[in-house]
Amino acid sequence: MDIVKLPVIAAGGIADGRGLAAAFALGAEGVQIGTAFLPCAGSGASEAYRNALSLFAANGTDLTDTFTGRLARGIRNRLMNEFREANSPPLPFPVQHALTQTVATPASAQGALELMTIWAGQNASLCHSTDATEFMTQLIAEAESVFSKYWEAVSAEREARDEDEA
Q: By the 8 A CB rule, do 59 and 130 touch?
C-alpha cells in the first residue's frame, strides 16, 4: 500500500479485532465491515435473514451466479445446492434475479431459511453480535489487545538488542 497515493480502505473478511489490526498494520487508512454487522438489530436485515446467518454460517459460503446471473458470495443452503445441481447456466441478470425472487421472497416472508438467498462474506461464521455498539466495543478492544501485544514484543526485542549492544 506504500506505493498507492490514495487512501486505501480495507474490505473483505474483517469481522474481529485481529482483522482490524491486520488491515491497519498493512497500511489501510480505514476499514469497511459488512457481513459482521448483518446480525445486529439495526442492520436493516430481516429477522429471517439474521436467523439464517446464525443457523447456516457453519455451512460455509460459496461464490455463485445462480441467484442473480452475476457472481456473488452467499451461504450454502438448499436453494444454492439445488440451483447448482441443475447444471444449467443462469439466465442473464436481471432475469435470473427476478426468477430466483419468485422462490426466495416468499421463503423469506415465511421464514423458510433453506430457500432464501443468504448473501454473506467469508467471515459469516465469525458474526454473532446482535448489538452494533457492543460489537464495535468488542472489535476495538480486540484490536487494542493485538497492538498492545505487538508493542510489548517490539519493546522487549529493542531492550534485548540495546543490552546486547551495550
A: no
> Kindly report the CA angle at 16 between 11 and 18, in degrees rounded to 5?
90
**Region label for 87, one of left (φ > 0), alpha (ψ between -120 and 50) or beta (otherwise):** left
Helical segments of the chain, H only = 17-25, 47-56, 78-85, 95-110, 132-165
Reference 143, options 4, 10, 2; nearest CA is 10
Burial of 13 per CB tally in 10 Å (0-12, 13-18, 19+): middle
Q: What are phi and psi of 18, to 5 degrees?
A: -65, -45
pLDDT category of residue 161 using cuts at 50, 70 and 90: confident
Q: Are 125 and 16 in contact (CB under 8 A)?
A: no
What would the pLDDT profile of 64-98 be if each residue is shown by its tens digit?
A: 999 999 999 999 999 999 999 998 999 999 999 99
Question: What pTM, to 2 d.p., does this model score?
Answer: 0.79
Contacts of 51 (CB under 8 A, 6+ apart): 111, 113
